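PT: before anyone asks, these are the final sequences, not the draft ones from last week. 233 residues across everything. Please model them as a single complex and drop the result in this thread when it's through.
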Amino acid sequence: MQTVRLEKIKKQSYAWQESLRALRTNLQFCGDDKKVILFTSAMPDEGKSTVVVELARSLTESGKKVLVIDTDMRKSVLAGRLRVKVNKGELLGLSHYLSGQRPAGEVLYGTDVSGLFMVFAGPTVPNPTEILEKEYFQRLIEFGRETFDYVLIDTAPLGAAIDAALIAKKCDGAVLVVEQKRAGRRLLQGVIRQLELSEVKILGVVLNKVKKGFHGYGSYYGQYGIDNKGRGE
Ligand SMILES: Nc1ncnc2c1ncn2[C@@H]1O[C@H](COP(=O)(O)OP(=O)(O)O)[C@@H](O)[C@H]1O
Ligand SMILES: [Mg+2]
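LR: through. Structure below.
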């Protein structure tokens, strides 16, 4: 297995670090049966990938072994954002594995963050929804479940593609990332409805990119859903 170096993708302000720790703590209190967690949002750029990677990093600081899977094979920017470089060959990803071109072991990368492992999205494919429904993906998740303490799944926004709702069926819980003041109520309700239809438990909401003066918090977790099966208002 190759190891890659990851660049920080968010300036670590004190408020941001505090919020991440709160998010990590809340996730851990959701119970150890919540291992495979999906992260989605209504729209692109609300901060899913940032939250997923930084939360993963934070979990490793408390000794957890974490796998991040980037399933956004439509417009994946994560590997680029983290400035990932491989020593030899091309950077392989989920699309190589799901299309049957590479075994899982070859698309799994260790990182310079001890305990953090990644499966990047790989090259864009014309049929992401279709290949995500394959048995291969289920197997990758099962492997992750057996091998890691947490599997955090980064997805394409639900407002743009159905992928996240399909993946949600295989997850123990879902977290919705919402950029403050951006996603409209109607769109958000649609996303929540889709997640409910996939019968995943909505663990909470991360309110991201919060403007200064809003309690100083960069993200907030568990606004609704922790105990009410996601039917919060
Ligand atoms: N809390 C935050 N504060 C400031 N910028 C952020 C924050 N979260 C994300 N960003 C920035 O917003 C942009 C989109 O974030 P990203 O994580 O790629 O969103 P998504 O995965 O939902 O498309 C990136 O440039 C990222 O650095
Ligand atoms: Mg993203």
